[in-house]
Amino acid sequence: MSVIPNSPTLVAEENIEKIRAVVEIAPRVHRVILEKKDRLPLQGEMFENDKGHQIVLKQKLGDGAMGHVFLTEVDGRSVAVKTEKHSTAMLPMEIKVLLITMRENCKHFCRIYDYGNVRREYNYMIISLLGRDLYRLRSEMPTRSFSINTTTKIALETLEAIEELHSIGYLSRDVKPSNFAPGLRDFKEHKTIFMFDFGLAKKYVDRENRKLKSRGEVGWRGTVRYGSLNAHKRLDLGRRDDLECWFYMLVEMHVGEVPWRFLTDRAAVGKAKIHAREEGRANFFFKLPKQFDTILQMIDSYAFETRPEYRQIKKLINEIRAENNCPNHIHWDWQTDESQYSELTEAVSVMSDMAILAEQGATNVTDRG
Ligand SMILES: Nc1ncnc2c1ncn2[C@@H]1O[C@H](COP(=O)(O)OP(=O)(O)OP(=O)(O)O)[C@@H](O)[C@H]1O
């Protein structure tokens, strides 16, 4: 089974530095361990966790920049296992975020069942199994876009997810469609959109809950297509930047593309984002409800420390829903017959679509090259 590559994220430079430091400073023996043992697990492999569960890494659900996500079963429940090489050391941040969201009863985050490492070869965390991510779901639509009903409902769900993350003191710094997915109907979670992948997450408040000041120029973070103008300027990112990425993601979902879809050069993408606000503005908003323009103006007006007006933005989205007579009950564009059908098999069976594979390979470029 071939696997669709996820649009990869650039690893936070500080993490690479940390890994480099360990390799450079540590004694030779440590280097040997890293070189010899540090690895990603393979499909079909098995390990035993501290609770004595035999975890079999079944089908691969997805590939990320840093590792693989597999399907497994724990106590008869299908769950996902995210893995990375031990030295990558990005999972600890994800685990930290998920433990807090679970403690705070956040609605839009996976449950974390277990985490750890296997002989220091690879790290893992076992989390709730989700459906196909929003990038894949959109790509599979005949029009490659979502209706106004689905787009605005996604907008409300994902904004709520971002607000929850911000409310626990964290930024995502990598908001993009492939980092959101609906839950599964088998678990009665299909009406909720979940946010995942916190490899680039960062705390924006200190221990006393005071907002941290901008650190100025810090280097690129995130994925080029959805990155904020501040990210293009390599500036420190705040809550407003998560919302800017969210905005580009919604435009792509409803229109089917963003104007910089075919650009690969980071500077050129930055220029296109400015053009979309200036001479290209009418064109950019042509296929979108007028409220989109207001929302971008709001996001653009925020300073680094500003708390985004989540409620006001939700009101504008609900206004779009009312103007378009969107029904109150959720019916996603990708949803088929409500009744018997199980999404559990769907979640793991549509990965070999070559058309999507080609599309993602060609357009989901980040600055890693
Ligand atoms: N809980 C889950 N349930 C089902 N599929 C998942 C789950 N988590 C991740 N996936 C799949 O695996 C892919 C990669 O996961 P994730 O984005 O967490 O990895 P990453 O290495 O951080 O990737 P990125 O390159 O986006 O930084 C996702 O796009 C998704 O398709």
From TrEMBL:
The record, for Pfam families, names: Pkinase
SMART domains named in the record: S_TKc (SM00220)
* Top-level taxonomic group: Eukaryota
Residues the record lists as binding ATP: 82
Keyword Nucleotide-binding found: yes
Where in the numbering of this chain does the Protein kinase domain appear? Answer: 55-321
Q: Any idea which UniProt keywords this protein has?
A: ATP-binding, Nucleotide-binding
Q: Which GO terms describe its molecular function?
A: ATP binding; protein kinase activity
The yes or no answer to whether the keyword Nucleotide-binding is present is yes
Name of protein: Protein kinase domain-containing protein
Q: Give the organism, scientific name.
A: Caenorhabditis angaria
Top-level taxonomy? Eukaryota, Metazoa, Ecdysozoa, Nematoda, Chromadorea
